């Protein structure tokens, strides 16, 4: 099966690197097109995929296309290659372009699957949300699951949960980064070098997440386990409650969902 990336920006590069680097697909089976051909060729040398010179050439050569351009560019792309992709399948990672939206613009006979990835896919620790509603064949879906599994954890969600899934998996890495930065500031305030602070704090976040995932323990219990009576951690917990930490987390998601 030949895979064709429409666009080779940050997210497409992460996916292509993961797919090829993990051995899930041979580099020779991966094609990509992007308007800036110089940049595309440089990325091709680094990642190993085959650059192609036009959208039409990509559409003709690939069996399965990954729509990885910006959401506002999709209609233009479909206008250009709509006729050439009849009978083929598209896996789209563009925010907001779910199955229902594609249905309004896709030429008849083109199969589609919406997947929402997140940036930790760049290091093989992504969350890849697959919309349940799709028109891929069973074999295509299994193949796409296998490919995306190489860059993180694949999870299928019904359409009505894709937006909240995207908020807590696609947007929230920025909030965790803010938290890492803030604890970094605190560590610097008390004398630690900034580089050391980020290294230690990021490892702490990674380790805490891994402990929760591997043990399946409720996060509240993990928190309680660290809070000895009259100890230091419970004082920090109380300070976070006073500052509205939990509400701030929930409000950040409200801000996304109520846009
Ligand atoms: N980054 C994220 O965290 C993230 C997370 C989830 C989903 N996504 C989705 O992933 C998609 C790409 O995001 P990104 O952050 O990777 O964007 P990006 O880095 O700006 O990449 C966009 C790519 O699209 C190419 N492009 C522009 N016009 C095109 C056209 N007419 N035909 C084909 N390719 C075209 C660009 O090529 P040139 O550079 O040559 O112009 C570039 O390679 C978006 O739809 C976004 O919603 C991103």
Report what the structure shows.
The protein is of the alpha/beta class and 259 residues long. It has two domains: 3-157, NAD(P)-binding Rossmann-like Domain (Rossmann fold), CATH 3.40.50.720; 173-257, Orthogonal Bundle (ProC C-terminal domain-like fold). The chain contains eleven helices and eight strands. Strands 3-2-1-4-5-6-7-8 form an eight-stranded mixed beta sheet, sandwiched between helices. The mean pLDDT is 97. The structure holds NADP nicotinamide-adenine-dinucleotide phosphate (NAP). The site of NADP nicotinamide-adenine-dinucleotide phosphate has 28 residues, from helix 1 and helix 4.
Give me the CATH fold name of the largest domain. Answer: Rossmann fold
Q: List ligands, each type once.
A: NADP nicotinamide-adenine-dinucleotide phosphate
Fraction of residues in helix? 40-55%
How many domains?
A: 2
How many strand units? 8
Which descriptor suits the 3D outline?
A: elongated
Jot down its keywords.
binds NADP nicotinamide-adenine-dinucleotide phosphate, 8 strands, 259 residues, ProC C-terminal domain-like fold, Rossmann fold, elongated, 8-stranded mixed β-sheet, alpha/beta
């Amino acid at each position: 099966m030949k895979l064709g990336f429409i666009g080779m920006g940050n997210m497409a590069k992460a996916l292509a690197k993961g797919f090829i680097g993990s051995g899930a697909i041979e580099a020779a089976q991966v094609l990509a097109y992007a308007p800036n051909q110089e940049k595309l060729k440089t990325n091709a040398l680094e990642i190993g995929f085959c650059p192609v010179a036009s959208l039409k050439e990509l559409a003709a050569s690939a069996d399965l296309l990954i729509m990885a351009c910006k959401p506002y560019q999709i209609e233009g792309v479909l206008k250009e290659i709509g006729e050439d992709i009849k009978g083929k399948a598209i896996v789209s990672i563009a925010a907001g372009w779910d199955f229902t939206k594609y249905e309004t613009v896709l030429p008849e006979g083109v199969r589609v699957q919406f997947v929402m990835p997140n940036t930790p896919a760049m290091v093989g620790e992504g969350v890849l949300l697959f919309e349940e509603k799709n028109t891929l064949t069973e074999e295509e879906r299994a193949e796409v699951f296998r490919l995306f599994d190489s860059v993180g954890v694949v999870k299928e969600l019904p359409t009505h949960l894709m937006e909240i899934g995207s908020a807590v998996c696609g947007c929230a890495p920025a909030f965790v980064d803010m938290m890492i930065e803030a604890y970094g500031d605190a560590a610097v305030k008390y004398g630690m070098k900034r580089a050391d602070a980020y290294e230690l704090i990021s490892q702490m976040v990674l380790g805490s997440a891994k402990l929760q995932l591997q043990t399946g323990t409720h996060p509240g219990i993990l928190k309680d386990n660290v809070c000895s009576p009259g100890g230091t951690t419970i004082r920090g917990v109380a300070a976070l409650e006073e500052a509205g930490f939990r509400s701030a987390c929930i409000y950040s998601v409200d801000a996304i969902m109520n846009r």
